[in-house]
Specification:
Elements lengths: L7 H31 L12 H9 L9 H5 L1 H26 L13 H24 L1 H5 L3 H22 L5 H14 L7 H19 L5
Helix pairs in contact: 1-8, 2-9, 4-5, 4-7, 5-7, 7-8
């Protein structure tokens, strides 16, 4: 059993990966520390408070389109967003597998089963392209978008396309794909893509406060 850490490209992406993890951890620690200092909880705790139940609710039922007005009013964009995020999640798993556990590729997991993985990554990439064009051609979205929004989507699409081409056509080898992953990891802590971590932190924090007051789940 060995890893793919040997080439210059793999070393670059490894540095980028650890930079990303450390930077996000520091940002999260600072945010939680500031939140603890600024928090003013004047409400009394509920007699039957269940913070764990509130957290489960906040990641399941509260995330459904019924409770999210923007998703309910734009179901196609909601589905495209979910599809793109699923592909990105699998592409990160693919990166971890290729770099640290390359011997598991022969196990025919979803992320290493070429045809299925190719279909998932291409579908996710097309969803990302749809969302990118929607942001470009929608005057409403364009007015509230900045450079970070476009860079984040384009980087996500690049990751998905490179993962797909690496899977079935081998038009992009592992080292070339590692360089694209490196761009992503270097950028995540300085752009909106950091929501990959802060999404979970915020939902947990929100649920803990409302669980404390006994108003979740509804």
């Amino acid at each position: 059993m060995s890893s793919n850490i040997g080439s210059i490209e793999s070393k670059i992406v490894l540095v980028a990966f650890f930079w990303c993890v450390i930077a996000l951890f520091v940002q999260l620690f600072r945010a939680r520390k500031k939140s603890a200092i600024d928090a003013r909880e004047y409400s009394r705790p509920a007699k039957c408070k269940n913070i764990f139940k509130a957290i489960i609710y906040n990641f399941t039922k509260a995330m459904s389109p019924y409770y999210k007005e923007s998703a309910r009013l734009h179901p196609l964009k909601f589905i495209m967003g979910i599809t793109m995020h699923l592909g990105i999640f699998l592409s990160i798993l693919k990166f971890i597998q290729l770099l640290f556990f390359p011997w598991t590729i022969s196990y025919n997991l979803i992320i290493s089963s070429s045809i299925l993985a190719f279909a998932i990554f291409i579908t996710s990439a097309l969803s990302g392209v749809f969302l990118l064009f929607n942001r470009i051609f929608s005057s409403e979205l364009r007015s509230i978008s900045n450079l970070d929004d476009y860079i984040s989507i384009i980087l996500s699409i690049l990751i998905l396309v490179s993962s797909a081409l690496n899977d079935i056509f081998l038009m992009i080898n592992n080292d070339q794909m590692f360089l694209i992953y490196a761009l992503l990891f270097f950028y995540i802590p300085v752009g909106k893509l950091r929501h990959a971590i802060f999404f979970f932190a915020v939902r947990v924090d929100f649920a803990k406060k409302l669980g404390h007051r006994g108003v979740y789940p509804l």
